[in-house]
Write a structure and sequence with these properties.
By secondary structure, the chain is α+β, with helices and mostly antiparallel strands. Strands 1-2-3-4 form a 4-stranded antiparallel sheet. A hairpin with a 3-residue loop joins strand 3 and strand 4. The longest helix is centred in the C-terminal third of the chain and has 19 residues. It starts with 13 loop residues before the first helix and ends with a helix. The model has no long low-confidence stretch (mean pLDDT 92).
């Protein structure tokens, strides 16, 4: 099952985000938003960081993936994915 397929077809509630952080599959899961249901998330493992966003008409999609290696640290991947998610959301609001 892919990351996107494992998410419900709606934004995540705070307690669901907490559950994802307890899962062994991810080292870190954070919402980009400060409060309310999470419509954009950052997932991190030892090998990669993914920025994921939810749209009402399209559901969840992976906006950015950054592979982590000797030259790319997790913080750099988190920042790149957060910027990509925010840009993706801004593009969707211009319609």
């Amino acid at each position: 099952m892919s990351l996107i397929e494992s998410l419900p077809a709606r934004p995540l509630e705070p307690q669901e985000l907490t559950s994802l952080n307890r899962a062994d599959a991810f080292e870190l899961v954070v919402a980009v938003e400060d409060d309310g249901p999470a419509r954009s998330l950052l997932f991190a493992t030892e090998a990669w960081v993914k920025g994921v966003a939810y749209e009402d008409d399209a559901g969840w999609s992976v906006v950015e993936t950054v592979e982590l290696d000797d030259e790319t640290e997790r913080i750099d991947g988190l920042q790149a994915c957060e910027e990509a998610v925010l840009s993706f959301q801004d593009d969707g609001n211009e319609e």
